[in-house]
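Continuing the series of single-chain predictions for the mutant panel. This is the parent chain; the variants come on the following pages.
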Amino acid sequence: MVSMIELIVIAHNLRSSHNIGSLLRTAEGLGVSKVYLTGYTPYPIHDGDERLPHIAQKVNAQIAKTGLGSETLVNWIHADDVFAVIETLRLAGYQVVALEQADDSVPLPEFKPTDKTVILVGREVEGIEPEIVAASDMAVEIPMFGKKESFNVVQAAAMALYHCRFSE
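Parent structure:
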């Protein structure tokens, strides 16, 4: 059964423009209502963009390569301060969930999303900074069965969003 919960994604301090395009495509496909691109995460070109035009166009082209148009369909916002975004969403009644391995994390299959859930993902190699995990309501991790310790950030986000969309 498809859950009609409202899903939001925060992507904090990702480096890869290709990951952002893929994340926006995944968000569009799973009905995410908004994506916040925070910190140094690259973002598509937009009206009033203050970056140098050649830089904005280059980043936009990289995002579009994997986003395949989703960057124009998904409601996204660039914000520098992830803590301000977390607090704003929490005050609006959202549960903020860091998708990260932590001592007190809940395995994804056991996670029950609320009607308003935010999935927060972070840096491709190091993961979400500990102080940002601490600012979240909880941590959820994807159990691993192989020898590797983690999935690609977009693959992990896709699994978590799919779980949220189809959990009962």
